[in-house]
Structures are given as structure tokens and as C-alpha cells.
């Protein structure tokens, strides 16, 4: 008997503690409420899925993609911890217990392993007699939390000697707090090197500050930022010029060697605004593929040795024959669902025949509804169950604010990019 799957899409949890430092925190978090929808493709398609709020236009997605087996529920409260909110909702807990079925087992897949996850799993065991399998959750919360910081990646890579070679961390330094940052920035700028300042627990590009040689407003800009305090700060070389943004995701099992899940090319608008990801067989031919995947596997092996389990992703910048690892996300990432969309709806070997990606479009009219989106996109919209290329509107919870995310698939990477351009023109975004 197959163990029922429960996905808890707590994408907001890890960002909230950092984002609350800023004014307008709910606006900052709004994109994460749409990101919850990515869990539609996590794990098996037949599952119970808990999200902060009901997934937008889910009935249409179920019918269009033929995924009737997903059940989506949300807790009554919203405190910033989806696991805590679920625990506080008796009706939702009863539904979770019923989902476990007669076998009294659940396979739990979260976006991020948090301290409240363990309380949730223990409550299911003691109060409901349900055994919870956690294939993607590190049993040591302290290891996960440390690795999910900017200093955690730099320390891990340094321990492995990855401050040099074809795959490395950018030149830089740790600061114990804000007071040390101006001197570190000036020291790097004095060598003619631009630099970027990152809060240790920063997420979603919040609070990043870029300084270039000649800057005379270092102290003022740091003091004006809401995201820096007496916590560690990383100052490292800002890499620009002729660059690309590859990313990789690995799975670290409990009792088997770590393995590469997929590789993506991240699509940025400007230096810090991520708009999408694409994965394709053509990426295996890029010069950065071998050093990045080999370097990532070195990190994965050491993480496993230290007690990590589950997925993690590495974001990198490739320039002049060197791959620089600048971020490690010790959780599922914003591209996990791209890979699983392809595997579920095209087939496990989808990369042999297709490129798959997602892209977020901004600037659509507020209050836009799905029927109008479908009208604008017209024949571009097609299900991978019945066509070899097409566009699938997804992450529709935030559509009312003027943001639309779509999945794209095509026989080649070039054709996929043509689809993105075509969708942008059809939505009349003008760029």
C-alpha cells in the first residue's frame, strides 16, 4: 500500500522573520503566497496540500492538467508558521489524520524544515497514532539552519578548500555585525573591486546593497537599510560583466550517496531580480556544467557527513571560466517544481526531449482574472499531456495583484525562449 503524501508549502516561514524588519512586510511576502502554489507539482500528483490560502483557480488547473487527485486545504489562522497554524486548527488536523488512512502513515514534504515541523510530526504520533516519514527533513535542525545562511555556505566551502579552483566562493569576508561592514566595503573598493553586502539570513534578494569603487555613501546607505543589525554580514565581490546564473539542486538521502536532481539557468531582470528558471539538456554542454555539478556534489557529501538530509540548491554566477557559488538554500527551491512538472507531465526522461521552465510576468492590470489571461495567451496555452510545446498559467493565487507565473515547455531551449517572448507580447507587456 502506497503511503499517502502530505505537502506543507510553508514558503513564507523562513522569509517572514527577516522581512518583518521592513515596512510593508505583507507586500514583501505577497509573492510567497503565490509561490505556495508550486507545491502542486511536488512529490506525487495525488496528495493533500496545505497552503496559507487556497490555491487560485485550482479547479481549472486540475481539469486542464488532469490532476484530480490533489486536495488543497488551508488553516483558519495565519501567524507566520504554517505548521503551527495547522496544529491550531482542529478541523484541519482531523482532515490530515483522515488522509493518513488505515495504514496510519504519512509521507511529509515541506518547503522548509522548521522547528515547528517537529512539533507537528510529534503531535501526529502521540495524539493520532500516525507515523510520519520525513525523507526531505534533516533530523538536526541546527545543521539545516546554519547551512541556510550566507556565512554557512562560505564556512562550508572554506573547510573543503573551495576558495580557489574552477568552482569556488567569491572573494569576501564575514563581519560580525553592522559596525564592521563599512571598513570591509572600503577595503574591497580600494582594490578596484565592486562588492555586494548581504545579511546572513537574507532571503529573496531583500536588503542586498551593491557598492562600486568611488562610492562615498557607504555608511549612509547601510544605516538607511532596515535589514542590517548586530547579526553576521557577508561582504564579497560583486560579479558582473559577461555572466550567467546557473543553479543546481541535490538530494541528500539518509542512507545512499547524494545525487544531482537537475540544473537550471536562472533568468534575471537586472542584477538581483529573479524572474524564472529553465532546465534543458543543452545546459549539459555549457562550460560551467561540469565544475558546478562536481563542486556541488562535494558540498553535498560533506553536508551528509554533518547530518544534513533532504534537498538543497546552490545559486551560482559563472564568469571567465570560473563558477562562483554565492548562495545555498537548505530546502526546496523556487525551481524544484519546474523539474517535477516536467517529470510528471512529460515523463521521467523529459530532458531527453524537452526544455522546461517558468517565468514570472509583472505589470499586468490589477484584478486580472484567469479567463482574460487565457484569452490573451490564446493558442499558446496547451497541456503537455497533449502537445509538444505550450504555456501553462500557474501560481495563480497572486494573479489579482498583476503578477502571472507560467510554465513553459518546448522541444529545445531556443524554442522555449521563443515561447516566453511570445507570451510577453501576447500579454502586451511591451518588453
Automatic annotation (TrEMBL):
The name this protein goes by in its record: ATP-grasp domain-containing protein
Domain (ATP-grasp) ranges: 154-359
Database matches in PROSITE patterns: ATP_GRASP
High-level lineage: Bacteria, Bacillati, Actinomycetota, Actinomycetes, Kitasatosporales
GO molecular function: ATP binding; metal ion binding
Domain of life of the native organism: Bacteria
Record's keyword terms, sorted: ATP-binding, Nucleotide-binding
The keyword ATP-binding is annotated on this UniProt entry: yes
Keyword Nuclease: no
Amino acid at each position: 500500500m502506497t503511503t499517502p503524501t502530505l505537502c506543507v508549502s510553508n514558503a513564507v516561514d523562513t522569509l517572514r522573520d527577516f522581512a518583518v524588519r521592513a515596512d510593508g512586510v505583507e507586500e514583501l511576502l505577497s509573492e510567497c503566497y503565490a509561490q505556495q502554489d508550486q507545491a502542486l507539482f511536488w512529490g506525487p500528483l495525488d496528495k493533500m496540500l496545505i497552503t496559507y490560502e487556497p490555491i487560485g483557480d485550482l479547479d481549472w488547473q486540475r481539469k486542464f492538467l488532469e490532476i484530480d487527485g490533489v486536495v488543497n486545504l488551508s488553516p483558519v489562522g495565519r501567524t507566520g508558521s504554517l505548521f503551527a497554524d495547522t496544529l491550531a486548527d482542529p478541523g484541519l488536523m482531523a482532515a490530515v489524520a483522515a488522509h493518513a488512512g488505515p495504514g496510519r502513515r504519512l509521507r511529509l514534504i515541506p518547503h522548509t524544515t522548521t522547528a515547528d515541523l517537529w512539533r507537528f510530526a510529534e503531535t501526529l504520533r502521540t495524539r493520532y497514532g500516525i507515523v510520519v516519514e520525513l525523507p526531505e527533513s534533516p533530523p538536526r535542525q541546527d545543521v539545516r539552519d546554519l547551512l541556510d545562511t550566507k556565512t554557512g555556505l562560505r564556512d562550508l566551502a572554506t573547510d573543503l578548500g573551495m576558495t580557489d579552483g574552477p568552482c569556488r566562493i567569491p572573494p569576501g569576508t564575514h563581519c560580525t555585525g553592522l559596525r564592521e561592514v563599512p571598513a570591509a566595503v572600503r577595503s574591497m573598493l580600494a582594490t578596484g573591486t565592486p562588492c555586494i553586502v548581504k545579511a546572513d539570513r537574507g532571503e529573496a534578494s531583500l536588503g542586498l546593497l551593491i557598492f562600486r569603487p568611488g562610492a562615498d555613501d557607504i555608511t549612509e546607505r547601510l544605516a538607511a537599510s532596515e535589514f542590517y543589525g548586530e547579526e553576521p554580514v557577508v561582504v564579497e565581490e560583486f560579479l558582473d560583466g559577461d555572466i550567467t546564473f546557473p543553479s543546481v539542486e541535490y538530494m541528500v538521502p539518509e542512507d545512499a550517496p547524494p545525487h544531482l536532481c537537475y540544473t537550471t539557468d536562472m533568468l534575471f531582470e537586472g542584477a538581483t531580480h529573479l524572474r524564472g528558471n529553465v532546465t534543458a539538456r543543452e545546459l549539459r554542454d555549457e562550460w560551467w556544467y561540469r565544475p558546478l555539478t562536481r563542486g556541488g556534489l562535494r558540498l553535498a557529501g560533506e553536508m551528509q557527513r554533518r547530518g544534513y538530509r533532504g534537498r538543497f540548491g546552490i545559486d551560482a554566477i559563472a564568469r571567465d571560466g570560473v563558477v562562483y557559488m554565492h548562495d545555498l538554500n537548505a530546502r526546496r527551491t523556487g525551481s524544484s517544481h519546474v523539474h517535477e512538472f516536467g517529470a510528471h507531465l512529460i515523463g521521467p526522461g523529459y530532458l531527453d526531449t524537452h526544455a522546461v521552465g517558468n517565468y514570472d510576468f509583472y505589470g499586468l492590470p490589477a484584478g486580472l482574472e484567469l479567463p482574460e489571461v487565457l484569452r490573451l495567451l490564446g493558442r499558446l496555452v496547451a497541456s503537455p499531456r497533449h502537445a509538444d510545446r505550450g504555456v501553462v498559467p500557474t501560481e495563480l493565487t497572486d494573479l489579482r495583484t498583476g503578477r502571472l507565473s507560467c510554465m513553459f515547455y518546448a522541444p529545445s531551449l531556443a524554442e522555449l525562449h521563443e515561447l516566453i517572448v511570445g507570451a510577453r507580447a501576447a500579454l502586451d507587456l511591451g518588453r
